[in-house]
Design goal:
Blueprint: H1 11-31, H2 36-43, H3 46-62, H4 66-71, E1 73-82, E2 88-91, H5 92-106, E3 107-121, E4 126-139, E5 145-159, E6 162-177
Parallel strand pairs: 1-6
Antiparallel strand pairs: 1-2, 3-4, 4-5, 5-6
Helix pairs in contact: 1-2
């Protein structure tokens, strides 16, 4: 996992660039005769949106951006943390916020890598994203650099505010020195 690491402020310019590209694509379709709503709807692939939301979620974790993480959750979210000192089931945004605060207090994230990302359409308005995700972190107590290798599962549900995380699985499959 050695190599160039993106800086934590990298997330905002990346999302701004993606937003700009989407706006340009909509403008091109409007110029071709579609209404803005038709242009936007024709571009929306819910599976791609779910994948982008999951990637943003992992980037927010790597950047320790708790406020952005929390905006992605539904009020009744459930987080299943399997492995390590935070093992447990957390219900609702208050408990989930607490577990992320504890995780960020004990670790400094610096790098995330997601591979084998698969998105499935489940029932109407529900999408599952499954991936192998690795976070390279520095343990606050010891200064040791480790890699947390996870199987990560996120269940998104469509809401009037967009896709929201209703269920999340953080499954530690291995830990290695960085």
């Amino acid at each position: 996992m050695r190599g160039t690491r993106p800086s934590k402020p990298f997330i905002v310019p990346l999302l701004a660039t993606l937003t700009l590209l989407a706006a340009v694509a909509i403008a091109v379709q409007v110029a071709a005769g579609e209404t803005p709503l038709q242009a936007q709807e024709s571009m929306v692939d819910p599976l791609m949106i779910a994948k982008l939301e999951a990637l943003a979620h992992w980037m927010y974790i790597a950047g320790e951006d708790l406020d952005s993480i929390m905006t992605q959750y539904s009020e009744d979210v459930e987080l299943y943390w399997v492995g390590g000192p935070l093992t447990g089931i957390y219900h609702g945004v208050d408990e989930v916020r607490g577990v992320w605060e504890r995780f960020f207090t004990g670790n400094e994230d610096e790098f995330v890598r997601a591979t084998n990302v698969k998105v499935l359409s489940l029932e109407d308005g529900e999408y599952s994203v499954v991936a192998d995700v690795s976070f390279e972190v520095t343990r606050a107590a010891t200064g040791d650099r480790i890699v947390l290798n996870l199987k990560y599962i996120i269940l998104f549900t469509e809401t009037p505010e967009g896709l929201k995380i209703t269920e999340e699985w953080w499954i530690i499959e291995g830990v290695e020195r960085a």
